[in-house]
Write a structure and sequence with these properties.
- The protein is an alpha+beta fold.
- The chain has a single domain, classed as Arc Repressor Mutant, subunit A, CATH 1.10.10.10.
- Helices cover 49% and strands 12% of the residues.
- It has a three-stranded antiparallel β-sheet.
- Strand 2 and strand 3 form a beta hairpin.
């Protein structure tokens, strides 16, 4: 039984999003509307150990460290990643419960309604 079958998320095809749900989800989708943030989330989520140090993310971009930190802050505020400071470095990990929720909404839109 999937999480959706267990009732964690109402599919759009059965019930429209409430205003509060739409506001929450739009913040998450808006955060991913920037290619840098989308790449950052992908880099974080694809790590085998589930987390990555900011020191490993910054060199992958031709952007300053403060700009990368700003993008990571927006991902954190949208609930897509969590962070933990360890000494001078900050480690980031994806929040699967949030990305699973977004995926459930998208899959419910794409799924045809059956009777």
């Amino acid at each position: 039984m999937s999480k959706q079958d267990a009732g964690c998320c109402e599919p759009l095809s059965e019930e429209p999003l409430a205003a509060q749900q739409a506001a929450e989800l739009s913040t998450m989708f808006k955060a991913l509307g920037d290619p840098v943030r989308l790449r950052l989330l992908s880099m974080i989520a694809s790590r085998p150990d589930g987390e990555v140090c900011v020191c490993e993310l910054t060199p992958a971009f031709e952007l300053s460290q403060p700009t990368i930190s700003h993008h990571l802050k927006l991902l954190r505020q949208a609930g897509l990643v969590d962070s933990e400071r360890r000494g001078t470095w900050v480690y980031y990990r994806a929040r699967p419960e949030t990305t699973d929720r977004m995926a459930a909404v998208l899959s419910s839109v794409a799924r045809p309604v059956t009777a």
